[in-house]
């Protein structure tokens, strides 16, 4: 434990602190130290309530959430109505991204329901970012036969909600990353879900709002999400930010280093507060596979490519401005297995969240019917998180799918698509 603390955990916390995270030294004896009343609690409810009031002002700019609405907002994110972790995680993620609609006030906005935000996505500094080491959580009945409680190395909380869990291992032990991932899966009861062990273990509620799992031994570091096995944890190899900019040399210089370790690169590229919120909002998907729900978080190349593309679309010169060529286009080169389909999904999803880009139509051209069948449902799920933007033809009049696009083309081709108002997606197989 001593080596893990000094060689891996302390440097991790120190770097987070420089990025704006507030550190708290955890306690195995007193939950109040970590802003909780009992070790059975997985969130910092007092912090959450304070942030809900701050992030959701009324029409006069003052807090308007009364006790009933506050209790409704807290209950929605803490009592998710399902005993399956993946379903709970998907529901909690939806609440984090879209908020919760509650009854409004008479005379305000026509008495319409108002959406309570758990996170301020637009102004990162309005949120509370806390990192707690040795975050003890008691295992509930039925999960405590082997261990009475768990103590994740680091828990990163945003507005009192645990979004990231980190397990640190000393680089001197054999296969430290495998050990860290196994421990994360034990904490979240994923070994039992995969029938690798017979008894329930850990504390699933701690992972209901979780978005990222990090395994690190300083020189090596990997990131995954709930449900991932070791093979699905991957490196994060970029420090590019949500605007497509970033220099590894600058990050290394700020840490007094000539080069970055994998841990330092992952922290700078993924856990900088603005980067983390960007990933949670735009680069996480829940998909169906063989009748099961799986969670997917982007890989570093997808994050980098999408943000560079968004920056080009927003800042590139038009043909009129440039005088010769439109500078907003480009090509993203992919290797086989690099996730090009999901890159498209993430790009459309982020475009739909951008005020300047959401009005544009997206044309997806494929050369295989099986790719079309696999891509369009994923594209619909990924980009359809906002009302009126779902892509399937039965729920979006602005969208034209391949199986009836041909009939449209027979009459007037893509020109007819261009005349349709509003954003949409066009899928054509060649």
N- and C-termini, Cα separation: 58 Å
Number of helical segments? Answer: 15
Shape: globular
> Helical percent range?
25-40%
N-to-C series of helices and strands: HEHHHEEEEEEEHHEEHHHEEHHHEHHHE
Class by helix and strand content? alpha/beta
Q: Total domains, how many?
A: 2
Q: Could you report the average pLDDT, rounded to the nearest whole number?
A: 87
DSSP E strands, number: 14
Measured on Cα atoms, how large is the radius of gyration? 23 Å
The side-by-side strand order for the widest beta sheet comes to 1-4-7-8-9-10
Largest sheet, in brief, is: 6 strands, mixed
Task: Walk me through the structure.
The radius of gyration is 23 Å and the shape is globular. The protein is built from 15 helices and 14 strands. A six-stranded mixed sheet has the order 1-4-7-8-9-10, with helices on both faces. It has a two-stranded antiparallel sheet with strand order 2-3. It has a two-stranded antiparallel sheet with strand order 5-6. It is α/β, with parallel strands linked by helices and 430 residues long. The model is unreliable at 385-407 (pLDDT under 50). The protein is 38% helix and 15% strand. The protein folds into two domains: 2-289, no CATH class; 308-429, no CATH class. It has helices spanning 2-18, 45-55, 67-78, 85-98, 176-187, 190-193, 248-254, 262-271, 273-282, 300-315, 319-322, 340-352, 369-383, 402-412, 414-419, and strands spanning 22-25, 100-102, 114-116, 129-133, 137-138, 149-150, 154-158, 161-168, 212-216, 221-224, 284-289, 292-297, 361-366, 424-429.
């Amino acid at each position: 434990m001593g080596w893990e603390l000094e060689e891996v955990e302390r440097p991790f916390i120190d770097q987070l602190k420089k990025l704006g995270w507030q550190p708290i030294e955890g306690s195995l004896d007193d939950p109040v130290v970590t802003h909780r009343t009992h070790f059975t609690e997985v969130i910092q409810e007092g912090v959450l309530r304070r942030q809900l009031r701050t992030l959701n002002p009324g029409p006069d700019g003052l807090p308007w959430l009364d006790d009933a609405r506050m209790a409704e907002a807290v209950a929605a994110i803490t009592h998710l109505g399902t005993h399956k972790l993946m379903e709970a995680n998907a529901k909690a993620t939806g609440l984090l991204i879209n908020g919760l609609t509650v009854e409004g006030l008479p005379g305000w906005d026509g008495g319409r329901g108002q959406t309570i935000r758990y996170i301020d996505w637009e102004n990162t500094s309005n949120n509370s970012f806390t990192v707690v080491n040795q975050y003890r959580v008691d295992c509930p009945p039925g999960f405590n036969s082997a261990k009475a409680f768990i103590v994740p190395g680091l828990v990163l909380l945003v507005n009192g909600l645990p979004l990231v869990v980190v397990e640190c291992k000393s680089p001197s032990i054999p296969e430290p990353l495998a050990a860290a991932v196994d421990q994360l899966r034990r904490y979240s009861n994923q070994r039992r879900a995969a029938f690798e062990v017979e008894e329930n273990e850990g504390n699933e509620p701690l992972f209901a709002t979780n978005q990222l799992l990090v395994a690190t031994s300083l020189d090596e570091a990997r990131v995954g999400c709930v449900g991932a096995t070791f093979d699905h944890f991957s490196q994060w190899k970029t420090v590019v930010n949500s605007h497509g900019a970033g220099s590894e040399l600058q990050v290394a210089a700020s840490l007094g280093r000539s080069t970055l370790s994998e841990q330092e690169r992952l922290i700078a590229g993924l856990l900088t507060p603005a980067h983390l919120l960007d990933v949670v909002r735009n680069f996480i998907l829940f998909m169906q596979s063989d009748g099961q729900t799986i969670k997917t978080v982007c890989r570093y190349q997808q994050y980098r490519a999408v943000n560079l593309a968004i920056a080009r679309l927003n800042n590139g010169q038009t043909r009129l401005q440039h005088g010769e060529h439109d500078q907003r286009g480009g090509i993203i080169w992919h290797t086989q297995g690099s996730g090009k389909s999901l890159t498209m999904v993430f790009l459309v999803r982020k475009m739909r969240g951008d005020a300047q880009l959401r009005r544009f139509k997206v044309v997806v051209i494929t050369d295989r019917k099986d790719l079309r069948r696999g891509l369009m449902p994923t594209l619909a799920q990924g980009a359809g998180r906002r009302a009126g933007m779902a892509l399937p033809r039965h729920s979006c009049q602005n969208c034209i799918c391949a199986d009836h696009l041909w009939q449209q083309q027979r009459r007037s081709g893509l020109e007819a698509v261009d005349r349709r108002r509003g954003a949409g997606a066009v899928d054509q197989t060649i």
